[in-house]
């Protein structure tokens, strides 16, 4: 009984740790004048929200652009990461350890160290300031996640089942569609959601390669922070959190390994 | 009904010094149930994968009714393979698994359903159509895998060690099922196995392979009565080998001259006789012998004998062996009609 109470207390503390910092954001976004040492704002308003959601703020455009970049990055990463992960997970080949170390490098090295070299290279290729350049740059931190997750997925995959499908009359495309894909789908989905989030939260790479011309949500957020607009910043920050929360809700079950509260209601 | 022929089929795996399959010539008769038999590593599974098109040969040709299929991808060969593991698709129901090949062909759903139902009842999985593979026992999974291949009515059916993953009690049942389905459908079937007893019980014809080459291709009885070489005879339990020379109806070896059956060929030869054909007691070609060991095997007793210093083995019924002890002096006879002559060791 006592252990149970302690457990729920710990869970509550953890939830508070994660949720409480968001509370001021929520309040800021609807506050009309909120000065120290007041506990609550003097008045409430939806001005910040209506501004953030208006065409002039450019928030919705940025939201769309960030979604587009993250989606494109995820798709490209899957296109490369699935076959690469398969090769690493299923086969042993000379230099496999080196490949793994090189793959991990972008995840280990600080982004600041690589971004200048990348910028120089992209400048020469004429990719700076373009959408394509930003997407390619995002692949640098995203691809390791995708490839390593898929390598783990394929290391538990028996390719004999593909031979079986072929022998039963399935073409290579049908074999992938009806046998391989269903087998790797849970892993691919998890990897894709995290790839999406890694791209979604890129600031430095977007700033350096996009050169301010590719205005994603984190860049816009920083510009409002710099302008000292606490209320609009709070509203954008909450919008910025949205995909993360949705993805957390979707994957919570897989992360905890059992049905989690967040997804309980979503399932039939 | 399709005749399967392999011509000079050769496959060497990269890095391997020796060819896994070496110039293999084999004709599998139309509508026959043939066992591809051999010790592990003899190339029988490689041969099966070559026929299925899962690997490509270095040389040689595979034909169905004379049409070469060597260059075709696996899905266009009309050859269905059932693997040693059932390899059912875990995300599909049993009905989904059995209907998989038909669905890939683009058959209408109603047609698939009726064929799948008929096939499932044929392999006695009627009530399990909606189950997932993981909910089935090993034997049921194996039957579902067999049904999944048979429902396609392939020109050639390949079964890789279909009984090896089953409990001994289930093996007999599965063997009978395979045999019955093969007889019913008349599909040319090739079964890979390393177990000679299984091959004998299951197949019309046996193709025995050693080290990537065909050692003998014949009816099961021939491997006991007329083995092609000493190695073939050994694989089928042959233990009595007397190297020597035959001339004028007599074979001369370490145990002296033995009368041969009429029309026996002459020259340097190894005389062999099945242990179960060696007789205790007087008769033609009799010799004094000493019992060196006795082993009770349940339905039979194995008697190890020393005949003029040469070790021979006899298998008799336990009744006949009653009263014998180690060291006993007996008479053993070699019936001429049970003698078979093998080529000398190379």
- Provide a count of the helices of chain B: 10
For the record, the CATH architecture of chain A stands as Orthogonal Bundle
Q: Name the CATH class of the largest domain in chain B.
A: Alpha Beta
Give the N-to-C terminal Cα separation of chain B: 40 Å
Broad shape of chain B: elongated
Which word captures the global form of chain A?
globular
Helix content of chain A: over 70%
Query: Which series of helices and strands of chain A comes N to C?
Result: HHEEHHHHHHHHHHH
Q: Which percent band covers the strand fraction of chain B?
A: 25-35%
Q: Roughly how many Å is the radius of gyration of chain B?
A: 24 Å
Summarize the main sheet of chain B: 6 strands, mixed
Quaternary structure state of the chains depicted? heterodimer
Distance between the termini of chain A: 32 Å
CATH architecture designation of the largest domain in chain B? 3-Layer(aba) Sandwich
Largest sheet of chain A: 2 strands, antiparallel
Overview of this protein structure:
The complex is a heterodimer of chains A (268) and B (346). By secondary structure, chain A is an all-alpha fold. In chain A, 75% of the residues lie in helices and 1% in strands. Chain A has helices at residues 2-19, 22-29, 47-52, 59-90, 96-108, 111-125, 131-155, 160-167, 172-200, 204-210, 217-226, 230-256, 261-264, and strands spanning 31-32, 43-44. With 346 residues, chain B is an alpha+beta fold. Chain B has two domains: 4-231, P-loop containing nucleotide triphosphate hydrolases (Rossmann fold, 3-Layer(aba) Sandwich), CATH 3.40.50.300; 238-342, Beta Barrel (OB fold (Dihydrolipoamide Acetyltransferase, E2P)), CATH 2.40.50. Chain B has a six-stranded mixed beta sheet with strand order 6-7-8-3-9-10, with helices on both faces. In chain B, strands 13-12-11-14-20 form a five-stranded antiparallel beta sheet, with no helix packed on it. In chain B, α6 links the parallel β7 and β8 (188-193). In chain B, α4 (109-122) crosses α5 (138-150). Chain B is elongated, with a radius of gyration of 24 Å. The chains are: A mainly alpha (268), B alpha+beta (346). The A-B interface holds A 158, 160-161, 163-172, 174, 178-179, 182-183 and B 52-54, 73-75, 79-81, 83, 85, 87, 89-91, 100-101, 103-105, 148-149, 152, 158.
